[in-house]
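Here is the promised in-class demo. Please do not try to memorize the tokens; focus on the logic of going from shape to residues.
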């Protein structure tokens, strides 16, 4: 590959950028402050309060439910304590500071299951009712699966026997989910008939989505378990979800979850083995895990690279200010990486800048910053550019907190 020294200028790069889609009525997006689905402003009855970074799994449940029901709503965001100072305005609204919360009919409600039951009572169920006996059984299964995942991931094992026992307990429950899915005539746990051959996920699918997504990522990174390879019907469930832009608008990637979970969960414990070492390396370098991370193949006229470029251009000033090597030193190597990503040619960064490029590579968050495929392309371009300068790594990603992801500089 030919190496170029003169990276494209910001003006030249901007020519490759594209405009964002309609945030209010278009496909689901983490950037919207209002969703109408073709309705008018006066039809809005719900305000959803969620975290800035879209890290909160319980927020994802409410977000997806509102999207699939097409209920007009406003979005207001605040910080999670693991990455920022909880805003005073939010504490006045929700004294506990917990997420998610909704405001409806001048009443604030917290806790995701309570919120879903309330929304269901007002707007009707998404598929079977939440308290239908079959759905209740699946909800209990989701909690048992969650508990077994926590025991395995978030507690140190003092010997191989204990590690193996925790793994087997998780595998048994994941198998139970897989077997249930195998008995349906659709990919969903609770399919909703739409009048065509296609079906949509119901409320219980919405309940399973956040933590199955995080299990898929964290167990690959910390344990070397490829959940989708081991459980074919769970894989089909994910593949069906990834066809839906409603889900993709909320979907995090393996890198994001692997590094946002430790401060939220009180730590994640690694079981070192060849698969775990390979998976974690591929995730950290930006390669990802291919179809086992997402089966979605971009079919839009706008490429993942163009989307990534547009997002960086929009926020490049705070991105550069937050970088440990500073704006003046990061300017050329960042343009080099973006030039590489958008043209396919290699551009050489200035000496001594690999640290800054890898710092940025490690702090791209999905879906907060951009969609999964766009993040993969950008991380790969940043690493491909950094390696031309040398092996120097950026500051390690913290595990006790993520104050390195403080949103405040990006809100000014």
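The designed amino acids, position by position:
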């Amino acid at each position: 590959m030919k190496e170029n020294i003169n990276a494209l200028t910001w003006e030249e790069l901007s020519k490759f950028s594209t405009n964002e889609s309609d945030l209010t009525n278009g496909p689901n997006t983490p950037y919207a402050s209002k969703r109408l689905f073709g309705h008018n402003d006066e039809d809005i009855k719900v305000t959803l309060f969620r975290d800035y970074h879209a890290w909160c799994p319980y927020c994802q449940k409410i977000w997806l439910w509102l999207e699939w029901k097409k209920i007009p709503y406003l979005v207001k965001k605040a910080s999670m304590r693991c990455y920022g100072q909880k805003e005073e305005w939010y504490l006045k609204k929700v004294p506990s500071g917990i997420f998610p919360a909704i405001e409806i009919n001048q009443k604030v409600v917290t806790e995701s299951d309570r919120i879903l039951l309330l929304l269901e009572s007002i707007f009707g169920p998404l598929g079977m009712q939440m308290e239908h006996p079959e759905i209740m059984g699946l909800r209990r299964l989701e909690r048992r699966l969650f508990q077994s995942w926590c025991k395995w991931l978030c507690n140190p094992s003092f010997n191989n026997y204990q590690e193996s026992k925790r793994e087997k307990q998780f595998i048994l429950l994941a198998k139970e989910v897989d077997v249930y899915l195998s008995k349906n005539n659709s990919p969903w746990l609770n399919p909703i008939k739409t009048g065509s051959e296609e079906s949509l996920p119901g409320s219980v699918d919405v309940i399973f989505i956040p933590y199955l997504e995080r299990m898929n990522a964290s167990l690959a990174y910390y344990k070397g378990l490829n959940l989708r390879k081991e459980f074919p019907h769970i894989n089909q469930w994910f593949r069906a979800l990834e066809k839906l832009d409603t889900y993709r608008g909320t979907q995090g990637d393996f890198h994001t979850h692997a590094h946002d979970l430790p401060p939220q969960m009180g730590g994640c414990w690694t079981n070192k083995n060849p698969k775990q070492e390979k998976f974690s390396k591929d995730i950290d370098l930006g390669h990802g895990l291919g179809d086992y991370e997402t089966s979605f193949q971009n079919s839009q006229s706008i490429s993942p690279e163009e989307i990534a470029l547009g997002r960086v251009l929009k926020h490049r000033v705070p991105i550069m200010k937050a970088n440990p090597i500073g704006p003046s030193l990061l300017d050329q190597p960042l343009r080099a990486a973006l030039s590489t990503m958008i043209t396919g040619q290699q551009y050489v960064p200035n000496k001594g800048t690999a640290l800054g490029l890898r710092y940025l590579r490690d702090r791209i968050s999905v879906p907060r910053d951009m969609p999964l495929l766009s993040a993969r392309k950008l991380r790969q371009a940043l690493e491909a550019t950094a390696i031309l300068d040398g092996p120097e790594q950026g500051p390690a990603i913290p595990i006790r907190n993520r104050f390195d992801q403080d949103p405040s500089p990006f809100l000014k």
